[in-house]
Amino acid sequence: MPLTIIVTRDVEMRYRGFLTSVMLEIAPGVYVAPEMSAAVRTRVWNVMTEWWEALGRGSLTLVWRDTRAAGHLRIENLGEPPRTIVDADGVLLAKRKQD
């Protein structure tokens, strides 16, 4: 079970209440769970996605370790341009996805 991180910015207080019930808030808007299962991570992100689609305010970023992804990191975004991790000759870069 990998480390999971969610970063929130300019979102309603309901996100904070929900996220602190399943994760530790280590800084304002930054939540971590050292051993969150994929099933729990998916359920939490589904709730975040439903709320964000209904409220349409702020941004959320979900990051977790995925050994199949470049740099062994997977990123999901709501409200900001999506990013992917790119391995450029051993240097990891965050690249905005182009539509």
- The amount of beta strand, in percent, is 35-45%
User: What portion of residues is helical?
Assistant: 25-40%
Poorly predicted regions = none
CATH class: Alpha Beta
Q: Count the beta strands.
A: 7
Strands of the biggest beta sheet: in what spatial order?
2-3-1-4-5
- Give, in order, the helices and strands: EHEEHEEEE
The geometry reads as globular
Q: How many helical stretches? A: 2
Number of domains: 1
Major sheet details: 5 strands, antiparallel
The CATH architecture comes to 2-Layer Sandwich
Question: Gyration radius, to the nearest Å?
Answer: 14 Å
The overall pLDDT, averaged over residues, is: 89
Task: Specify the structural class.
Answer: alpha+beta
Q: End-to-end span in angstroms? A: 32 Å
Protein name: Type I-E CRISPR-associated endoribonuclease Cas2e
InterPro entries: CRISPR-assoc_prot_Cas2_sub (IPR010152)
Any key phrases for this structure?
7 strands; single chain; 26% helix; alpha+beta; 99 residues; two-stranded antiparallel sheet; Alpha-Beta Plaits
Structure description:
- There is one protein chain.
- The chain is α+β, with helices and mostly antiparallel strands.
- It has one domain (4-96): 2-Layer Sandwich (Alpha-Beta Plaits).
- The chain has helices at 13-20, 38-55, and strands at residues 4-9, 24-27, 30-33, 59-65, 73-78, 83-88, 91-96.
- The strands form 2 sheets. A 5-stranded antiparallel sheet has the order 2-3-1-4-5, with helices on one face. A two-stranded antiparallel ribbon has the order 6-7.
- The chain starts with a strand and ends with a strand.
- 14% of the residues are buried.
- The mean pLDDT is 89.
